[in-house]
Design goal:
The structure holds 2 protein chains of 2 kinds. Chain A is an alpha/beta fold. Chain A folds into 3 domains: 154 residues, Beta Polymerase, domain 2 (2-Layer Sandwich), CATH 3.30.460; 144 residues, 3-Layer(aba) Sandwich (Rossmann fold); 101 residues. In chain A, the strands form 2 sheets. A 6-stranded parallel β-sheet of chain A has the order 7-6-5-8-9-10. In chain A, strands 2-3-1-4 form a 4-stranded antiparallel β-sheet, with helices on both faces. In chain A, helix 9 links the parallel strand 6 and strand 7. In chain A, helix 2 packs across helix 3. The C terminus of chain A is likely disordered. Chain B has a domain of 146 residues: Four Helix Bundle (Hemerythrin (Met), subunit A) (Up-down Bundle). Chain B is built from 8 helices and no strands. The two termini of chain B are 24 Å apart. The chains are: A alpha/beta, B mainly alpha. At the A-B interface, helix 7 and helix 12 of A face helix 5, helix 6 and helix 8 of B.
């Protein structure tokens, strides 16, 4: 039997100080893979290392041995004594480990539920390990199924449809108002970190016309340059307000920077064209009564956070649907995983039958040398048909029992009945070779 | 044949009802559900097409001469407008509000006799046929423009209330809705202009005068003025936003009044047939 285990820490079990100690650099990754390749116990290994998690997936014959090997590897490569961080570690074995990987890939284990960045990181981790030669057929299939499941979750559920952060929520609202952000002008009042982040998201979504005003002109210049926009003196903000479609306000002013009358006069000039005001300053920059003006949509930081909270609730609902999809894809993986364990048995059985058929055919054909070529062909086809018909049912049954977790008994009894021991060992995986060699040494 | 026609009528009603039900209850924007609903409404549309063609062949005139017939055609042409909005502008959410409306129109036809009109020679005039055809087609465009205005007002309100989850999450942006309203209303206004013009020519041929201040004519003029005012503000002075959306909905109120109220309460006019 092949076991799969995962050893890891994530944002739920460990603080960032610990997570960064366990994060793998490129050179540590390649040293780890080299270490794994030289380890007898480990058949396969994939290391997933992101800022929120470090997880080591390994496969081999025995879960206990695998855990020991991972501990040894962490000690050797990272110089970490896993005993001291045991409370922060989680170790999953078998189906729990597989389920964990599927959840991670689909973003169900992420800090922001349903985020999709992790899927790329999972793919990358697998391909790095694959390049280093520590991915065999099992992990290849396992990760492929996990990625398929995650993609299905992304397309078949709405888990990632709505924004999960304040700045993304602002972008989504902007898209509810304006058809194309390309045509929209963004005015930034107060060049803080938060307004820069929101501007960044808007810019990435196509809003390329940017104007920045700030009390300190140099800071406005800096930010404007980053986005290929214009900067202006703080005093000119009224002038630009009349031209802007989206306003991000984030000044340190203790009072309202924009009042109702000012926006009302701007709106008359805009002829009813909608205006989207994002007030992320605390204390607020824009008089909340502005929202009562027609075609003006004002969102302050609390409003945006409320939008995000509502979205997160929806994500949780969608996560339940995602669980069903993961179950389906896990079942697909296990179908492959379990039947592959009996593949050597089936091919041994087939090989044995084929050997018998060929040798008996040879003997018979020698005796029947007065047959025509056509008749010889018929006899050969006959033998092949008999062998195939006899083996068809057992092969189907073996696969069925493998899925039902009863393969052990059947492998053993079929080996006994047909004397297949040698045939099977001829095609054993890596760790069995090593184990066999050790056994011979003893 | 009449039995086949009423069977098609009932079946089309069932398809429209189920399509509307699936669209309206598809809160989660499930792709497969949407496609199912669209298929159902396409089926209803096809049956309605057959029904209208069937009437043409059975009764030997273009079926626009009774209230029952104009309702059938209005349901048909509204669905056509929905499909055009979907295909050319990718405005899929239009079905959400539009299909229930088309169903309501079709359902209303149940209450009016499907018996064919008694036709006099003057009613056979192609001028008249095109006059009614363009009028009802304009009503269809106005109806879809109206549901789009409702969407605009809904999204506007939800944005103000800061609740954009649920139904509103699947609707297009205010900008897009504004643009769709404009396209539909201008198409409607064009057709209405054609209709009024043809009607005037026909009236002059039959009764010897172009315009008689008949209630239907007055209300057509009111409708025309409202939509022209809408287009003028939208196009010439570049106004948009909530009030403009409301103006276009007001235009539809005039359409409804003219089509339904004038038909039943001002029955004495020259348009008494419809």
């Amino acid at each position: 039997m092949t076991e799969i285990i995962v050893v890891g820490i994530n944002h739920k079990t460990a603080p960032v100080e610990l997570r960064e100690k366990l994060a793998f650099t490129e050179s540590e990754l390649s040293r780890s893979f080299a270490w794994c390749a030289g380890c007898d116990v480990l058949a396969e290994a994939v290391i997933l290392s992101t800022c929120n998690r470090t997880e080591i997936y390994v496969s081999g014959r025995d879960a206990g041995e695998l855990e020991g090997a991972v501990t040894a590897m962490l000690g050797s490569v990272k110089g970490i004594d896993t005993g001291s961080i045991r409370p922060n570690l989680y170790i999953h074995t078998g189906e729990t480990a597989v389920e964990h990987l599927f959840k991670v890939a689909a973003g169900l284990d992420s800090m922001v539920l349903g985020e999709t960045q992790i899927l790329g990181q999972v793919k990358e981790a697998c391909s790095k390990a694959s390049d280093a030669g520590t991915v065999g057929s099992i992990f290849h299939a396992l990760f492929r199924h996990a990625v398929t499941a995650a993609k299905r979750v992304q397309t078949e559920t709405a888990i990632n449809r709505n924004a999960a952060s304040v700045s993304f929520a602002a972008v989504e609202l902007a898209k509810k108002i304006f058809r194309r952000l390309d045509d929209s002008t963004v005015l930034v009042i107060g060049a803080g970190k938060m307004s820069e982040l929101t501007l960044r998201h808007l810019y990435d979504q196509g809003a390329k016309k940017v104007v920045v005003v700030n009390r300190t002109r140099s800071r406005a210049d800096q930010l404007a340059v980053c986005f290929g926009g214009l900067s202006a003196d703080y005093g000119e903000r009224r002038h630009w307000l009349a031209r802007a479609d989206i306003v991000i306000s984030s000044t340190g002013a203790p009072h309202f920077v924009l009042d109702r009358e000012e926006i009302a006069s701007v709106m008359r000039k805009r002829r009813g064209k909608p205006l989207f005001l994002i007030d992320i300053a605390v204390p607020r920059d824009i008089d909340p009564r502005v929202n009562t003006l027609e075609n003006v949509y004002l969102y302050d930081i609390d409003d945006l956070q409320a939008v995000v909270a509502a979205n997160m609730k929806e994500r949780e609902n969608e996560a339940r649907k995602a669980g069903v999809i993961l179950k389906e894809e896990m079942a697909a993986f296990y179908l492959w995983f379990k039947t592959r364990e009996v593949v050597p048995l089936i091919s041994a059985l087939r090989r044995k039958a084929e050997t018998i058929r060929l040798s008996e055919l040879e003997v018979s054909l020698k005796k029947l040398n007065n047959l025509s070529d056509r008749e010889k062909k018929h006899v050969e086809n006959l033998t092949r048909a008999i062998v195939n018909r006899i083996l068809r049912e057992p092969v189907l049954r073996i696969k069925e029992f493998a899925v039902a977790d009863k393969s052990d008994i059947y492998v053993a009894s079929l080996c006994q009945l047909f004397d297949l021991e040698e045939e099977i060992n001829g095609s054993s995986p890596k760790w069995e070779d090593k184990a066999g060699a050790e056994g011979a040494g003893l | 044949m009449t039995q086949a026609l009423s069977a098609a009528h009932v079946l089309a009603l069932c398809l429209y009802a189920s399509a509307a039900a699936v669209f309206v209850t598809d809160f989660e924007y499930d792709r497969r559900r949407f496609q199912l609903a669209r298929l159902l409404s396409a089926g209803g549309f096809l049956l309605l097409t057959l029904l209208l063609l069937g009437r043409i062949f059975t009764y030997r005139y273009v079926p626009l001469l009774t209230f029952h017939e104009t309702l059938l055609y209005l349901a048909w042409v509204s669905t056509l407008a929905l499909m055009i909005m979907d295909k050319t502008f990718g405005f899929k959410a239009v079905y959400l509000f539009g299909t229930p409306l088309a169903f309501a129109v079709l359902f209303a036809s149940v209450f009016f006799t499907p018996v064919a009109a008694e036709i006099t020679e003057e009613l056979r005039s192609p001028w008249l046929t095109v006059h009614i055809l363009s009028a009802i087609t304009a009503y269809g465009a106005f109806a879809v423009s109206f549901v789009t205005s409702l969407m605009y007002l809904l999204v506007d309100r939800r944005l103000k209330q800061k609740k954009i989850t649920g139904l509103t999450a699947g609707l297009p942006s205010l900008d897009s809705l504004d643009y769709y309203i404009y396209r539909l209303a201008s198409a409607g206004l064009f057709l209405l202009t054609v209709s009024i013009f043809l009607g005037a020519v026909w009236a002059n041929n039959v009764w010897g005068s172009y315009w008689r201040w008949d209630p239907k004519e007055i209300w057509a003029a009111v409708t025309w003025t409202l939509y022209a005012a809408y287009l003028h503000t939208r196009l010439m002075s570049g106004w948009q936003g909530r009030r403009v959306a409301m103006l276009s909905s007001l235009g539809f109120v005039a359409v409804f009044f003219n089509y339904v109220v004038v038909r039943f309460f001002f029955t004495g006019g020259l348009h008494r047939f419809f």
